Amino acid sequence: MKIGKDPDGLAELLVKISAYSMILVVFFIFFFLFFEGIKIFNFESVQHFFLGQSWQPTSSNPRFEIASIIIGSLFVTAGALLLSVPVALGCAIYLSEVAPPSLSELLKPVIEILAGIPSVVIGFFGLTVVVPAVASIFGIPSGLTLLSGILVLAIMVLPTIETISEDALRSVPRSYREASAALGATDWETIHKVVLPAAMPGITVAILLGFGRAIGETMVVLMVTGNAAIIPTSVFDPIRTMTATIAAEMGEAPFGSPHYFALFMIAATLFVISFMVNSAANLLIKRGSRYA
Amino acid sequence: MLDRRTTQAVVFSSFLLCVALVVAILFFVLFDIISKGIAMVSWEFLTQPPRNNMREGGILTPMVGTILLSIGAMIAALPVGVLTAIYLSEYAREGRALSLVNSAISNLAGLPSIVFGLFGLAVFVNLFGFGPSLLAGSLTLGLMSLPVIIKTSQEAFASIPFSFREASLALGATKWQTIRHHLLPYAMPGILTGLILGVSRAAGETAPILFTVAAYFLATMPSSVFDQSMALPYHLYILSTQSFNLRATQNVQYGTALVLLSVVLALNSAAIIIRAYFRRKYRW
After folding, report:
1. CA B181 to CA B88: how far, in whole Å?
2. Residues in chain B within 8 Å Cβ distance of A267
3. What is the pLDDT at residue A292?
4. Would strands B56-57 and B50-51 be described as parallel, antiparallel, or unpaired?
5. A223–chain B nearest CA distance, Å
């Protein structure tokens, strides 16, 4: 093919290269994280790394065990979703089913603005407002706790869950609602028994992606959770997440040290979690798109 | 047992309460940062570099860093992003390749930002030997902004009626001529929207730049793409968590937060307005 004389061929080639490079990029990201991370297993056994609780990367007898860090991530994520999902769903149902269109239009930017606030700014708000408030309300010496992390992270993931749920609710065909109303159901009965079940795949996707967003969020948890690598016994204990561990320690981990490799393995673990969450969401979207 | 109407009233009120809660949270966050930051933001604050352990002076150096990083990220991401969008909207056929590309993009969109940061550190900083630099940081941020650019641009192409393509092809134009002269101009507003959203994403993120470019303090502006740079989000993070005297920098912290917030929200609003304007203008 003479490319110089064939702009169409060249264009097709270029767009294909660009598009296929997306697959390569994702593959390379995983490959490099894993390639660096796997070297930690020369220093710590796989079992100890994932199941042990002692994270002492800089002691003279260093230990690289991340169970307490994984648990920290899971707790703060679960807590944030527990608070955020009901509120987000309430908003989504109200805006798509109950509110008059003019009110929905008016309130739409609220969610968009919230979604647009940089995470470091939300983290800063958490640090200067939520953390002191938690400390004084519960009479504890420091507000840098799991609870503060949960509260602030809940604000962070709310727009994700709200937007996707609202889309799911709006994509339920009007005829479903009309059929239910014609049978004498009230609006709430229609929502509860017809619209919500029909939108369930989409709402599940919303919660899944909210989970992915929460477990991957870095700055907020880094700034408000206290960053102690212990398994918390109450919401007033500090915790440390996978993301915050990487962010806080990579700066001091010498290139090519076991500590460096351990942090890459944590990132590879995060990659795998995020990959599984996204694949599950994609599968649900494919199956749930029966109204299209 | 409540009657059906009462149940509905109770349930709907609780939903309204959810909405009110979210509105209240948003206004509280905005009010807190605006009210405490506004006194700080002056011409001097925006045009002076930080002084005296960052307790005084302004935020010029981090602001310039953030602008340079955003520009660099878009130079890296826009061409590939738009070409990929053209593939998805104009060339791709249903099949294995398309579903692989799509799932790669959605995975990229879902990856935690800190993961991009580490990838940037492993590949751009260490493997390619750029060191912590504007170049490494821009490439990392560019990678992270790709999904939003692709998605917005793809929607722009997909929303152009099919008849435009048919008319152009019927007159004997090739596929690329059709795309270049009859689709691209109409997709421009959408691409611009994607570009603005990409800039806003790149300007606001902290985690990807922690190890790829950001510097705690620099007395001078970066003079080449291989220099480290300060950046607004990192500046705010450092000031609010690691300065020697948190009280002494508190005003600067609020000022920085307000400027960062304003920049990002202004960009997002611009994107929304452009989209709304052209949606009304091009109604086919």
Report:
1. 18
2. 114-115, 118
3. 42
4. antiparallel
5. 7
Is B37 contained in some domain?
A: no
- A187-241 pLDDT per residue, tens: 999 999 999 999 999 999 999 999 999 999 999 999 999 888 888 888 999 999 9
Lookup: tokens for B100: 């692989």
Which SS3 state, helix, strand or coil, does residue A252 take?
coil
Q: Give me the mean pLDDT over the B55-77 stretch.
A: 91
With contacts defined as CB-CB under 8 Å, which chain A residues touch B22? 87, 91, 110-111, 114, 158, 162
Distance of CA B74 to the CA centre of its chain: 10
pLDDT digits (tens, 9 = 90+) for B219-238: 788 888 899 999 999 999 99
CA distance A148 to chain B (A): 15
**Within 10 Å of residue B221's Cβ, how many Cβ atoms?**
14
**In angstroms, rounded to a whole number, what is the distance separating the alpha carbons of residues A162 and A167?**
9
Would you call A19 and B88 a contact, using CB atoms and an 8 Å cutoff? yes
Residue B16: inside a domain: no
Instruction: Determine, yes or no, domain membership for B275.
Output: yes
Which among A118, A162, A281 is the nearest to B233, CB-wise?
A118
Query: Using CA atoms, how far apart are residues B173 and B167, in angstroms rounded to an integer?
Result: 9
The position carrying tokens 């919303």 is: A206
**Average pLDDT per consecutive 10 residues, chain A (292 residues; last block may be shorter):** 71 93 95 94 93 89 92 96 97 94 89 93 95 93 94 96 95 93 92 94 95 95 90 90 95 91 96 95 78 46
- Cβ-in-10-Å burial (0-12, 13-18, 19+) of A228 comes to middle
Helical spans, DSSP H, in chain B: 4-37, 43-47, 60-86, 96-110, 113-120, 134-158, 162-170, 175-178, 184-204, 232-242, 250-281
**Residue B67's domain spans which residues?**
55-281
CA of B162: how far to CAs of A12, B90, B167, in Å? 19, 11, 9
In B64-85, which positions are buried (b, 16+ CB within 10 angstroms) versus exposed (e)?
bbbebbbebbbebbbebbbbbb
Portion 166-225 of A in contact with B at CB < 8 A: 186-189, 209, 212-213, 215-219, 223
Token pair for B142: 């560019």
Cα(B99)–Cα(B103) distance, rounded to whole angstroms? 6
Task: Evaluate whether A175 touches A291 at the Cβ level (below 8 Å).
Answer: no
CATH number at residue B123: 1.10.3720.10
Q: CA A266 to CA A263: how far, in whole Å?
A: 5
- Residue of A3, A21, A22, A192 best to disrupt the B interface, most CBs of B under 10 A: A22
**Prediction ipTM score:** 0.92
Rg (CA), chain B: 23
Asked whether residue B191 is domain-assigned, the answer is: yes
- Looking at the 3D structure of chain B, how many domains does it have? 1
Global pTM exceeds 0.95: no
- Cβ contact B29–A122 (<8 Å): yes
How far A40 CA lies from chain B's nearest CA (Å)? 15
Using an 8 Å CB-CB cutoff, list chain A residues near B208: none
Are the CB atoms for A278 and B110 separated by under 8 Å?
yes
* Residue-level pLDDT at B134: 95
Q: Which of residues 64-103 of A touch B (CB under 8 A)?
A: 86-91, 93-95, 98-99
